[in-house]
Give the backbone structure.
Amino acid sequence: MKSLASNDFLIRDAWYVVAWPHELTADRPLARTVLGEDLVLFRTPEGQAVALEDRCAHRLAPLSRGRIESGGIRCLYHGVKFAPSGQCLEIPAQPQGHPNMCVRHYPLVERDGFIHVWMGDPGKADAERVIDASPWASSPHWKPSRGYLHVKAHVSLIADNLLDFGHLPFVHPNTVGAAQQADFATEVRPLAEGVQTDRWYIDVPASAFHQSVGHFKGRVDAWHCFRWHLPAIMSLNSGSAPTGTGAREKPHGSREGAIEFHHIAALTPQDEDHTHYFWVHWRNFALDEPAMTDTVHRNIMAAFSEDQAMVEAQHAAIRRGAQTVPKAIMADRALSLVRSQLARRAQGSVA
Amino acid sequence: MKSLASNDFLIRDAWYVVAWPHELTADRPLARTVLGEDLVLFRTPEGQAVALEDRCAHRLAPLSRGRIESGGIRCLYHGVKFAPSGQCLEIPAQPQGHPNMCVRHYPLVERDGFIHVWMGDPGKADAERVIDASPWASSPHWKPSRGYLHVKAHVSLIADNLLDFGHLPFVHPNTVGAAQQADFATEVRPLAEGVQTDRWYIDVPASAFHQSVGHFKGRVDAWHCFRWHLPAIMSLNSGSAPTGTGAREKPHGSREGAIEFHHIAALTPQDEDHTHYFWVHWRNFALDEPAMTDTVHRNIMAAFSEDQAMVEAQHAAIRRGAQTVPKAIMADRALSLVRSQLARRAQGSVA
Amino acid sequence: MKSLASNDFLIRDAWYVVAWPHELTADRPLARTVLGEDLVLFRTPEGQAVALEDRCAHRLAPLSRGRIESGGIRCLYHGVKFAPSGQCLEIPAQPQGHPNMCVRHYPLVERDGFIHVWMGDPGKADAERVIDASPWASSPHWKPSRGYLHVKAHVSLIADNLLDFGHLPFVHPNTVGAAQQADFATEVRPLAEGVQTDRWYIDVPASAFHQSVGHFKGRVDAWHCFRWHLPAIMSLNSGSAPTGTGAREKPHGSREGAIEFHHIAALTPQDEDHTHYFWVHWRNFALDEPAMTDTVHRNIMAAFSEDQAMVEAQHAAIRRGAQTVPKAIMADRALSLVRSQLARRAQGSVA
């Protein structure tokens, strides 16, 4: 079996969420590391969002200590200036320029409240493959809460955590997990580039969180419907509806009186020991209540902090004792599927 | 000459003190690393003290974050449960179990106020070889003070320190050392698996510590009689008696009016740069005075802190400049004996 | 192109400034690391300044934890004593001594307010090659301000910074740099073992610092005249004079009404990631005003802190992404000259 901290997840030819749009400004560049590469992110005064290698081509000083100017960014060590394309625009006291002076440019897409960068071959960067969050981001019927975690763990361990229902009653007994969840079957099926995982809890008490925001008068039908996108973006629909009202009927039964959430979690490897974790959690109720935005944020972060503590401890244990071999159990089906898809891709049999 | 930070000390087939009995509870597992291996230590609700590898066999999460239950410990990531033997007792949603799911179990002996683990081949673990502290631990005539130090140094450097009388007047001029100690000869003789080292100081003023607790009216005969057990446990008898009363006569002369101590120091390597140091110092006087227990503890820790500062500085100097070759002097006889015994053992000529 | 963090700078057969004279006392030894070697520095009670390897020859305990005694230093682990030559003077309880017991001794010169050590072959240590600061250090017409920085960067990056005028307007726009400096040419010429770099600014406003201490009534002629000594000592003459008074005439025109400074910066590698930076800045005015000594110190440190922040960021960027290749520009001429001299020396074609 391959290592739990599997570098099959570290795909270069992929879009990664690297920042929130508001983090890119024309006032001050942002330094962020993805797949071990240091990026500088900024917005030109003209409004263009840009990602470049965070090393001046002259003597490798960080451009993130530089100054954003009209048309580009200037290194504040010796004043060399670069365009959003990475091409050199100016070398002080050297009007003829320099033929090879440029920094690496990363394709970037700003869409639906995310900044995505492409870390691999720029020729393969297809903006159509960016995850589509428009059904929630562009709709007046959904309201987001957002959060970021910097996790000291390999991306693959966080992916495992998200792909797995088995940990819910043990890691989250008092937050999003509930002991009786284990009694319901999980449907797992492979997609072309990912996995679909569905679980329905029929005729159960609402979870503490759903009860507190949904005020149900009786038992509910609740659901977790995941879609995993390789290498590491999760799109999750969840909710609770009064039991017996047919929420499970497909494509969609009545969801009268239901509360629904849509969640996107984007895992972006900083390096083999750290991961950027961006999440958005949209709700379809209490749209005009800012306090609800905070309530949702607080509840999600409480659960994620429980995951983070466990995953970081697991990561450290693996790093100290890599010789110990893990063993899969039946509950690992979804994450095993994703891992085998990534392994095939790493071996070249998947584009 | 072999490195001062000699890994000949890192013997696997040996008993090591890993904890105090009170540290193992049924409430909360204890994580401790020995010879580079992460252990989880706990006590079942039924009272059994247990040492297991601190990595769940499923996905390597630390069991020290788990929950102690009747009959074993449950990993709180996905709920896999293990018996004190390391065998898997339960996998959630997988009633048929898993044939190879188990964690490494370490033989453990709880005796005379110490928890000992065996780090090597379990088939060779012979509880008879555990150091015998019963003459003091089980007797109403001795009262212990106890302490623990976490030392940032290789076990071999601490062993050298304990095996050496030469440092007393330089490291401890104001605590346990005294300049005139250097005038008395040290008798060193090899044992089957260790060294015996004796030093008698006849007709001397009592040391500051012994005078303060023994209230001698005149000069004393004092002694330090060491027995070193491979790889790294020291058993020391020391004391002061009014001079001329025959304390030195063997097996034992009159010790009327004497104060005596027995000390066990157990050095347990955490890894090549850190050592667990457990010590117990029994006295044969003021048995009913709790304040004396504190006084002894304070005096011992004051001296050990002097050693610790020097040994940690020596360790750091060796790690930064390993190419410099040390040179032995005559005062190194006891520690050189122990090192050559360990070297022979490492080469296989001693069982 | 060789790495920016070039180890050609790490020459062993060279004099390095290691301390200020007042740092070496007979009370307490000083530990300092140069070129990765740990030194202990002290002054005997007889007044001799001494540099030895900071590891006792016996068991490698740091001599910097030892005790300075008449005629030498005693290790406070086991009491072995060494002379300033590194020879062993005494081993406790071993009156016959030990034939090979000695520690490495480093040639040392105390001159003009600096302690210099020779890190290479002692047979090649020629005190005549120590940098000559006597024209300023021994003259009543110059008054020094002094400072020390511990920089987390490779010595070569700091050398680049000092050898380069190009960064002044970008790193120091509000301190020692000024935008119009870029309009004046820099004269660069190689020396036998270093580089001379001169820049004159004719008929300009005085810099903020020079104006604040020189109180000029009109425009000035100002200058920066560098002399670089391999591997890494800079000697700099700078100043401002009322324009048109002929300050530039050689050897020296009238400097009536001018303020002048002489600066020595001595870069001493601690290891490949840290550098000791000693500087002295002499002035030829306000000699009797202690407040001016502070003013100069504060101004120099303000500018150097700007350099330090950039150079440390550059160092970290290089260490994280060593595969990125830098590209030279015309402004790099002086530093490129020094680097090629060092490269030739490293290849053996220069003594």
